[in-house]
Design goal:
524 residues, alpha/beta, Purple Acid Phosphatase, chain A, domain 2, 5'-nucleotidase,  domain 2, six-stranded mixed sheet, 28% strand, globular
Length: 524
C-alpha cells in the first residue's frame, strides 16, 4: 500500500513538472500570408496603360497567382476598397461582375471604398448580399449591410480585421448616394473596435480605404494596430513600411500587381515581416480558367453595346494627368459641356475622368470608361468672384493629386503652385477678357459638383442663394440654375459629339498655367 502511494505521488510530481516545463517552453512560430489588392475599379481585362505598349493586369492571371501563393502557406485574401466603378466592364452592371469574380477567388473580406457608394445605397446593399465574403465599414452608420469587423482564424492565429473608409466619402460621391449615412472619424472608430476585440484576436489588421498618408497618421495615433492594408491613394508600396509597431502596405491599382505580406507570429506578436508586390504580366503567367470565363461572359455583354466605333483619336487623349494639370481630354470634355449648355465657361473636376483613350479607334465603351458616373450637365449663374473662389478651391489640392483639380473651357487661369492654398490664383480671363469679379457669368458643370461633390460648395451655395430657391417634390427650383438636363448623361453627350467630329485631336492650349511654366497669357 505504501509503495502504491509512493508511486502515485511520483507520477503526480512528474506530471506537474512536465506541464510546468511545457508551459515555459517557447511558443512555436506560425506563418500568416496576407494577399491584398486595392482600387481595382473593375479593370478585369489585361490592358495597356497610357504611354506604354506593355500589356499588364488581368484578373484571371491575378486569381491564378493568388491561388498558387495561398497553397504555400496559411493565407488571407483581402480587398481594400474601390473594387467597382471605373471600367465599363464593371460600370454597366453596377459592380455585379466584380462581385462574381471575387466570390470565385474566395476573398476573405473587403472594406467598402468611396466608389462602392456610386450606384446608391440600394445597389450597395444588394452587392453585399451577393458577396460570399463580409464587406466592412466600421465608421459608416446607417447602412446595416456593412459589418464593422470580423475575426478569422488562420492556422491557429485569430486575426481581427477592422474596415474603415475615408471620411470624405460624402464629397467623393454624389450626395444623394449617401443620404442618411454618417462617416465617423476613422481613428476613434478603430480605437473602439480594438477595445471590443480585446481577448478575441491575436493580431489586429485594419483594412483601410483612407489613403497612404492617412494610414501613416492612423498608425501613429492609434495603438494596437499590427497591420494596415490600405487603398484609396493608389500608392505603389513596393515594400512594407513600419510606423511605430504597425506595418503598412498598399498595392497600387487596377489589378496591375498582387500584394504579398508574409508575417511570422509568435505568442500573438509579429516577430518577422516580409512583403512585396507581384507584377501581373499576362504573357508570362498562367490564368485561372474559371475566372477567365466569367470575365469573358461579362465582356461579351459589354461588346454588344459598347463595341461600336464612333470616331478616330488622332492623338492620345490624356486622362492620366487630369488631377495635376490641363489635359487635352479634359479640354475636349469641358468644351462639350460649354457648348451643350450655351454657357460662358465650364468647370469640371479632373477626378471625374477615370482613364485615357489611346490613339486609334474610339468606341462608345472608350468614352464610358472615361466617364463612368451617372452625371448630367447643369449651368449655374456665378459671379466673377465665385468663379475665382471655385478655381482657388480646385487648385488647392494639387500636391496630393486631389480629384477636385479643375479642367475648364472658356477660361484661362494662371496660378502659383507654391502659393498658400486658397491664395494661388494670379490671373483669370473669361472668353479672352480679364474677369470682372462683380459680373455674373453662366458656368457649366455636372450635377455632382452642383450638389457640392468633391467639396465644391460654391456651386451649391450659388443655387441656394437665389431668392426663389425651393425644392418641390425633389426637384430644385432656382433662378441661378439656368440649365438642367437631367435626362441625358454627360458621357452620352460626349459620345454624340465624338461621333459628329469623327476625327479627334484636342490640344492643350494654355487654359491652366502654372507661373514660371512659359507663356502665361490668355488664349482666345
Amino acid at each position: 500500500m505504501k509503495r502504491t502511494t509512493t508511486s502515485t505521488l511520483f507520477l503526480l510530481i512528474s506530471l506537474v513538472i512536465f506541464l510546468f516545463t511545457l508551459h515555459l517552453a517557447p511558443a512555436c512560430a506560425a506563418s500568416l500570408r496576407i494577399l491584398h489588392v486595392n482600387d481595382f475599379h473593375g479593370f478585369a481585362e489585361s490592358h495597356k496603360r497610357l504611354g506604354s505598349d506593355d500589356v499588364r493586369g488581368g484578373v484571371a492571371c491575378l486569381a491564378y497567382l493568388a491561388e498558387t501563393l495561398r497553397k504555400e502557406k496559411p493565407s488571407l485574401l483581402l480587398a481594400a476598397g474601390d473594387m467597382i466603378q471605373g471600367s465599363t466592364w464593371s460600370n454597366l452592371f453596377e459592380g455585379r461582375s466584380v462581385i462574381e469574380v471575387m466570390n470565385v477567388m474566395r476573398f476573405d473580406a473587403m472594406v467598402v471604398g468611396n466608389h462602392e457608394f456610386d450606384f446608391g445605397k440600394t445597389v450597395l446593399t444588394e452587392l453585399t448580399r451577393e458577396a460570399d465574403f463580409p464587406v466592412l465599414g466600421a465608421n459608416v452608420t446607417g447602412l446595416d449591410a456593412l459589418k464593422p469587423y470580423i475575426v478569422k482564424e488562420v492556422d491557429g492565429i485569430r486575426v481581427g480585421i477592422i474596415g474603415v473608409v475615408t471620411e470624405e466619402t460624402p464629397t467623393a460621391t454624389h450626395p444623394r448616394n449617401v443620404e442618411g449615412l454618417t462617416f465617423m472619424p476613422a481613428a476613434k472608430t478603430v480605437e473602439r473596435c480594438i477595445g471590443e476585440l480585446k481577448g478575441r484576436a491575436d493580431i489586429i489588421v485594419v483594412l483601410s480605404h483612407l489613403g497612404y498618408n492617412a494610414d501613416m497618421a492612423l498608425a501613429s495615433t492609434v495603438k494596437g494596430i499590427d497591420v494596415i492594408v490600405g487603398g484609396h491613394s493608389h500608392t505603389k508600396g513596393v515594400k512594407p513600411i513600419t510606423v511605430g509597431s504597425t506595418v503598412i502596405v498598399q498595392a497600387w491599382e487596377h489589378g496591375l500587381v498582387l500584394g504579398v505580406l508574409d508575417l511570422t507570429v509568435e505568442s500573438g506578436r509579429i516577430v518577422a515581416v516580409e512583403g512585396r508586390l507581384e507584377d501581373i504580366v499576362p504573357e508570362k503567367m498562367a490564368r485561372d480558367e474559371k475566372v477567365a470565363a466569367i470575365v469573358e461572359k461579362w465582356a461579351g455583354k459589354v461588346r454588344e453595346s459598347m463595341g461600336k466605333v464612333i470616331a478616330e483619336a488622332e492623338v492620345d487623349l490624356d486622362g492620366e494627368n487630369v488631377r495635376v494639370r490641363e489635359t487635352n481630354l479634359g479640354n475636349f470634355i469641358a468644351d462639350i459641356l460649354k457648348k451643350e449648355s450655351g454657357a460662358d465657361a465650364a468647370i469640371i473636376n479632373g477626378g471625374g475622368l477615370r482613364t485615357s483613350i489611346k490613339k486609334g479607334p474610339v468606341t462608345v465603351g472608350s468614352i464610358y470608361s472615361v466617364m463612368p458616373f451617372n452625371n448630367y450637365i447643369v449651368g449655374i449663374r456665378l459671379t466673377g468672384q465665385q468663379i475665382r473662389d471655385t478655381l482657388e478651391y480646385g487648385l488647392s489640392g494639387i500636391e496630393s493629386k486631389e480629384g477636385r483639380f479643375p479642367q475648364v473651357a472658356g477660361i484661362a487661369v494662371t496660378y502659383s503652385p507654391g502659393g498658400e492654398p486658397g491664395k494661388r490664383v494670379r490671373t483669370i480671363h473669361v472668353a479672352g477678357e480679364p474677369i470682372d469679379l462683380s459680373r455674373r457669368y453662366i458656368v457649366a458643370t455636372v450635377d455632382f459638383l452642383a450638389a457640392g461633390g468633391d467639396g465644391y460648395q460654391v456651386f451649391r451655395e450659388a443655387i441656394r442663394q437665389s431668392p426663389d430657391f425651393q425644392i418641390l417634390g425633389g426637384t430644385i427650383k432656382s433662378g441661378n440654375l439656368v440649365y438642367n438636363d437631367a435626362g441625358r448623361w454627360v458621357r452620352d453627350a460626349v459620345v454624340s459629339e465624338a461621333a459628329r467630329q469623327k476625327k479627334l485631336a484636342p490640344v492643350v492650349d494654355g487654359r491652366i498655367k502654372a507661373e514660371g511654366s512659359g507663356d502665361e497669357g490668355p488664349r482666345k
